[in-house]
Amino acid sequence: MSRIFVTGGSGRLGRSVVAGLAAAGHEVFSVDRDAIPTEQLPAGAVQYTADLLAPGEAERLIRETAPDAVIHLAAIAVPFSAPEDVIFSTNTRLAFAVISAATEVGVRRIVTASSPTALGYGCPEGWLPPSFPLDENTPATPWNAYALSKLIAEQTIRMFAAAQGDKIRYAAFRPCYVISPEEWEGALTQQGHTVRERLADPSLSAPALFNYVDARDVADFLDVLLAKMDSIPNGQTFFVGAKDALAAAPLSELLPQFLPGSGPLTEHLTGTSPAFSIEKARTLLGWEPKRSWRTELTPPFDGADTAVLKDENNRGLVPAGATSKETA
User: Among 297, 247, 290, which Cα is nearest to 272's?
Assistant: First the structure.
């Protein structure tokens, strides 16, 4: 069991991370500007309300709670949801404040959330990668303040890793489009649509290249990452996504419709193959996502699902209604 300090613990992803880590037996300290109702706080978790941008506040709380690990999730989480200068300033200052405070205190494992948007897809001037699937070696070309702030968070991790050597272990992760447990049952997703609507109308998921991840799978990833940080190279970044795409047709058919010029790059994305690779997390950590929209959506999707006909990617998924589904 570890003592884990989680910033942004009241957010869409944070709630599942706090719940998942607490369920795994860790003592979790959830820190956010906004508290969640006490009855929603899982056993094994304690919450603090704080402004982590206030001078000295991050270091004060980290010293007070004496964690074994810090996971930084707090940020303005939606591109263009605030003025660009506010998003950039808030997110970069938060990342530096938390990572530097944890380093100063001597916390042994420090992790920050980044974003797949650092790659630059969705750019109004056009964007194409060298190849698909996208992975950690795909060049990052952010075109907005949110994406740039997340790339800087990754660079902040690498800077501290270079300065500290192996005395402190650092990592960053890029969670795909987060689906929280209640959203499988009809609650609105981050962009104001239901999962069912995103499946029925591919144009809704196309801007994110049909990527997604169940928030509970992110919690599982972080539990595995923290356990293995001492045995992997320091300062690593990982994509964290589902095994399949959030689409009911193969991406070899869908992406060329929404991403001009991508046809030759996506011909091999048949069946349920996603646009984002999680092979690095598989190889270095042995992590596998357990959940898919095909197992979690309640009631199941009633539209045509041509992608599943060629499916080779859903091995190991947790059937809907299984006990391990209820971890958040």
Answer: 247
Query: Omega into 299 within 30° of 0, i.e. cis?
Result: yes
The one-letter code for the residue type at 87 is: I
Number of neighbouring beta carbons within 10 Å of residue 10: 22
Instruction: State in Å, rounded, how far the first CA of the chain is from the last one.
Output: 18
Is the confidence at residue 81, as pLDDT, over 70?
yes
Cα dihedral across residues 20, 22, 28, 30: positive or negative: positive
In angstroms, the CA 13 to CA 180 distance is: 7
Is the pLDDT at 145 greater than 50? The verdict is yes
Q: What is the pLDDT of residues 198-223, one digit of tens each?
A: 999 999 999 999 999 999 999 999 99
Q: In the structure encoding, which two tokens stand for residue 215, read together?
A: 């928030």
Cβ burial, residue 56 (10 Å; 0-12/13-18/19+):
exposed
User: What is d(CA 63, CA 46) in angstroms, rounded to the nearest whole number?
Assistant: 15
- Tell me the sheet residues that pair with 3: 27
Q: What is the CA radius of gyration of the chain?
A: 19
Dihedral over alpha carbons 300, 218, 224, 248 (to 10 degrees): 40
Contact 267, 123 (CB under 8 A): no
Q: Bridge partners of 236?
A: 171
Q: What is the DSSP-derived secondary structure letter of residue 276?
A: B
- Residue 320, pLDDT score: 35
Say what the pLDDT of residue 309 is.
62
Token match 């790059």: residue? 265
Q: 188: which 2 tokens?
A: 């609105």
What pLDDT score does 273 carry? 97
Q: Bridge-partner residues for 31, per DSSP?
A: 7, 48
